[in-house]
UniProtKB/TrEMBL annotation:
Domain Transcription regulator PadR N-terminal: 14-82
Name of the protein this chain belongs to: Transcriptional regulator PadR-like family protein
Pfam families in alphabetical order: PadR
InterPro entries xrefs: Metal_resp_DNA-bind_regulator, Tscrpt_reg_PadR_N, WH-like_DNA-bd_sf, WH_DNA-bd_sf
Source organism of this protein record: Bombilactobacillus mellis
Gene3D superfamilies in the cross-refs: Winged helix-like DNA-binding domain superfamily/Winged helix DNA-binding domain (1.10.10.10)
Amino acid sequence: MAIQISSEILEGIVLAALQQADLYGYALTQQVQSIFDISESTIYPVLRRLKKEQYLTTYDQPYQGRNRRYYQITDLGQQRLASIKCDWQDFNKKVNQVLGDQDESRN
C-alpha cells in the first residue's frame, strides 16, 4: 500500500522544484515522477492552482517551432513554500514520535 501525497505536500514539491530552476510542465512532471509515483495529469491542476493564487508566474520560450510555457516561483510562492516546509517539519516530527519511537524501543 502506498501513502498518498496530500495536495499541500504536492504544492510544496512543485514549489521546491521551481525554486531550483524555472521549468516547463513536462520537465517538471518528469522531475517529480523520478521521485514520486504520480501521474502526469496530477501536476497540471497543481500548476494552475498555484498560478491562480499568484505563487507562480509563467512565460513562454520558443522551442523547435513551438512555445514552451515555463513556470517561475514568485516571492509569494517562496513564502508559501516556507510555510509548507514548516508545516511538514511539524507533521514529520509528530509522525516520528508515534512511529519512530516504537521502532527505537524495540532495539
